[in-house]
Write a structure and sequence with these properties.
- Chains A, B: Residues 27-46 bind DNA.
- Chains A, B: Residues 4-64 form the HTH tetR-type domain.
- Chains A, B: InterPro entries: DNA-bd_HTH_TetR-type_CS, Homeodomain-like_sf, HTH-type_TetR-like_transc_reg, HTH_TetR, KstR2_TetR_C, Tet_transcr_reg_TetR-rel_C_sf.
- Chains A, B: Keywords: DNA-binding, Transcription, Transcription regulation.
- Chains A, B: It holds the Pfam family TetR_N.
- 2 copies of one chain form a homodimer.
- Chain A has 193 residues and is mainly α.
- Chain A has a single domain, classed as Tetracycline Repressor, domain 2.
- Helices cover 70% and strands 0% of the residues of chain A.
- Chain A is built from 8 helices and no strands.
- The termini of chain A are far apart.
- The structure holds a DNA duplex (30 and 30 nucleotides).
Chain lengths: 193, 193
DNA sequence: ACATCAGGTTAACGATCATTAACCTGATGC
DNA sequence: GCATCAGGTTAATGATCGTTAACCTGATGT
């Protein structure tokens, strides 16, 4: 009972295909074929093509926020530690799920209205999580600037899935972490307490 | 003779529409209507819908590279100064042409094959421009990592056009410059020589 | 006066696509 | 043994879209 396999297979292959060719560049026939079934069989698992995208994007936004909150809690009041945790988590997720990251910020606007609203809410909360820590770190920072800074950091971290895989993931992970922390004005690694 | 007005109007409105709804989300009828003409009249100015996108993207890639080279030359051997010049230029362009930036990294793959190749070449050269300066600044840095760092910086700088305009452009400009320089490990403003 | 032509127009064509309809089939509970 | 039903199939439908065709019109150079 633990394997609604088809459904998950569809979500996974859809992520790959959407990432490679864009939401509008993939037909339901393409998507079906890539799953070994064909065309309209998808409608036995999802209400529409948009529903596939909607489930994909809401679930990753939820997960990003959920684990993000966990990392902040784990830092227990130290904003620099919280930001290091947030950066680590975001890098880990982005490198582990490159297609999802690509789809998330490319095909966002192809969502149906209600799902778009839901994703926007989740993303706003995630931005707020980062912005709060940034403001705790530098007291002079106003909220809009802190939010803008958080979004710029996401841009940095989300950009690399698109790029070539010319360097190994472990090196990329450290490069991105260091750059993000540098951008945010947080001192990088120190003592693991 | 200095005003091929319609053509430029089409390119400008196409940039806005493509940025808002994506290349596939805009029909030629939409685009024509937004220009005050309608539908197939576009084909008097462009060979195809893809050709509009192609001209848009190649011209901005060319301009980005051209001025980038100029800024590097102006720094005359000082890599930190060159990077400050590159960051300034990129921020200026990104904030001045937000729709173009959005289209450039969202609808890249909708280009016809030859234009895609041309844009890729121009972007590779632009990345190389940044990577060279980064390597001149920190001698231990290998080329692939330098290129990855440059692309991450673009991600940071290109992300903000998408975001809300909650803070004034002048503040955003300074925030982005500071973050980009921080990410790249370049000391921010000093003496204007 | 007139041929040319740039820059419009509307109508028609041919693809492509998401979605629905109608039908099949094998397992499963009773 | 049999009704149910999940999960497939192919065929049909209706819309949208890029592109082409055929036609119109006003300015312009000669």
């Amino acid at each position: 009972m633990t394997e609604p396999s088809r459904r998950e297979q569809i979500l996974a292959t859809a992520a790959d295909l959407f990432a490679a060719r864009g939401f509008h560049g993939v037909s339901v026939a393409d998507l079906g074929a890539a799953c070994g079934i064909s065309g309209p069989a998808l409608y036995k698992h999802f209400a529409s093509k948009q529903a596939v995208l909607a489930e994909m994007l809401t679930s990753i936004s939820e997960r990003l926020l959920e684990v993000g909150r966990e990392r902040v809690a784990r830092a227990d009041g130290d904003p620099a530690a919280a930001l290091r945790g947030l950066v680590d988590w975001h890098v880990e997720f982005a490198l582990g799920h490159r297609p999802l990251i690509i789809v998330q910020d490319r095909d966002w606007e192809s969502l149906p209205e209600d799902a778009r609203e839901q994703v926007r809410r989740l993303q706003r909360a995630y931005v707020g999580l980062w912005a709060d820590q940034l403001r705790a770190l530098s007291p002079g920072l106003d909220r809009p600037s802190a939010r803008a800074a958080a979004q710029a950091a996401f841009g940095l971290l989300n950009s690399t899935p698109r790029a070539g895989h010319a360097i190994p993931d472990s090196a990329l992970r450290e490069l991105l972490s260091a750059m993000a922390l540098g951008a945010l004005g947080v001192a990088p690694a120190e003592l693991q307490r």
